[in-house]
Specification:
A: mainly alpha, 10 helices, B: mainly alpha
C-alpha cells in the first residue's frame, strides 16, 4: 500500500516536472534558426527535395553511421545468443504446423510487391519521406511473411551475411569517397549533384540510403530468422 | 484546430492503451496494446508533419517490435512447457543437473 502511494506521488511529481513542456508543445508557426538554415541550404547545396534525408545522411551522416553500427551490434548479439545449441533442441523437436492455404498464397503474392516497395522507399529517400531504415524494415516484413508461410524453410544465411557486410563496407567506402573527392567524410557531393527532384540526383545520397536499406533489411531478417530458433 | 483535437484524442487513446498494457492479465494482450500505442503515436507524428518519423514508428514500433515480442513470448512458453514435461518424466533430472 505504502509503495503504491509512493509510486503515485512520484508520478505526480514527474508530471509537474514535465508540465512546462506541455505548454510549448504543438506545431510552431515558424521554424527556428537552425531549421530555417537547413531548409534554405539543403536543396541548394545537396539537391535533395526531402530535407530530412539531407540532414540524416549528410549533415548528421556520422550519427547515422553510428546508428547502423549499433544495429549491427544488436543483431550480432541476438544471433550469438539464439542458437540451437543454447536454446536446446526445443525448436527443432516441436512439430511445426504447416501454414494455411490463405497465408501461403498471400505470401507468394505479396513477397515481391513488399520487396519492391521497400526498394522504392530507400531509392526515393532523397525525394519522398522514408529512407534506408524504413525501406529495410519493409523488406524484413516480406521475409517475415515467408517465415510464417513456410516454417520449415531456412533463410540463405551466407547470402544474408554477404549482403550485410558488403553494404556496410560500401557505406564506409562512399563516406571515404566524400573525404577524398569533396569536403569531408560522408559528403555526398563526391558524385555529381544533378537536378533537384530527379531520381538520379543529390550525389551519393541515394547510393548511401540504398546500402543502408539493404544492410538494415538483411540484419532484421537475420534477427527474425534467429528468433525462429532452429538455426545451426 | 482540428489537428489539435485529433492529437488530444490520440494522446488519450495512447494513455488508455498504455495503462491497459500494464494492467492486462494476459501478456498477449499487453504486447498488442503496446503495439497499438506505437501505431497511434505514428498517427500523431503524421499529424504534426513528420512523415519520416511516422513511417519509422509504424514500421519498427508497431510492426517489428510486436513481432519480436510475440516470438519471444512463444519461445518462453515453449521453454516452460519443455521444462515441466521433463520434470514430469524424470523427477530427479533437475537435481542431477541434467540439461
Amino acid at each position: 500500500m505504502m509503495r503504491k502511494v509512493l509510486v503515485f506521488l512520484a508520478l505526480i511529481g514527474f508530471a509537474f516536472a514535465l508540465l512546462p513542456l506541455a505548454y510549448r508543445a504543438g506545431v510552431a508557426d515558424e521554424p527556428n534558426a537552425l531549421a530555417t538554415a537547413y531548409l534554405e541550404r539543403a536543396p541548394a547545396e545537396l539537391a535533395t527535395a526531402n530535407v530530412v534525408t539531407a540532414i540524416v545522411v549528410s549533415y548528421r551522416g556520422f550519427d547515422t553511421l553510428g546508428e547502423v553500427a549499433v544495429l549491427f551490434a544488436a543483431t550480432a548479439g541476438v544471433g550469438a545468443l539464439l542458437t540451437k545449441k543454447r536454446l536446446g533442441s526445443a525448436g527443432a523437436r516441436a512439430p511445426r504446423k504447416e501454414a494455411t492455404e490463405v497465408l501461403g498464397t498471400a505470401a507468394r503474392l505479396l513477397t515481391s510487391l513488399l520487396a519492391l516497395f521497400g526498394v522504392y522507399i530507400f531509392t526515393h529517400g532523397h525525394l519522398t519521406p522514408g529512407g534506408g531504415f524504413q525501406g529495410g524494415v519493409v523488406i524484413a516484413t516480406a521475409v517475415l511473411l515467408n517465415i510464417l508461410a513456410r516454417p520449415q524453410s531456412h533463410l540463405a544465411h551466407g547470402l544474408m551475411t554477404a549482403v550485410e557486410s558488403l553494404s556496410g563496407a560500401a557505406y564506409v567506402a562512399l563516406g571515404l569517397l566524400g573525404a577524398f573527392l569533396a569536403w569531408g567524410f560522408l559528403d555526398p557531393r563526391a558524385l555529381p549533384l544533378g537536378e533537384l527532384g530527379k531520381l538520379v540526383s543529390a550525389g551519393a545520397i541515394p547510393l548511401i540510403y540504398s546500402v543502408v536499406g539493404l544492410k538494415v533489411g538483411a540484419e532484421l531478417s537475420g534477427i527474425l530468422e534467429a528468433l525462429k530458433g532452429d538455426r545451426e | 484546430m482540428w489537428t489539435d483535437v485529433a492529437i488530444i484524442i490520440a494522446g488519450l487513446v495512447m494513455l488508455a492503451a498504455g495503462i491497459g498494457a500494464i494492467v492486462a492479465k494476459s501478456l498477449l494482450v499487453s504486447i498488442i496494446l503496446a503495439g497499438g500505442v506505437s501505431l497511434v503515436a505514428s498517427l500523431v507524428f503524421l499529424l504534426i508533419g513528420a512523415p519520416d518519423v511516422a513511417m519509422t514508428e509504424a514500421a519498427i514500433g508497431s510492426g517489428l517490435t510486436t513481432v519480436v515480442f510475440l516470438y519471444a513470448l512463444a519461445r518462453s512458453k515453449q521453454a516452460d512447457k519443455e521444462d515441466s514435461d521433463e520434470s514430469a518424466e524424470h523427477p530427479d533430472a533437475e537435481k542431477a543437473g541434467a540439461p
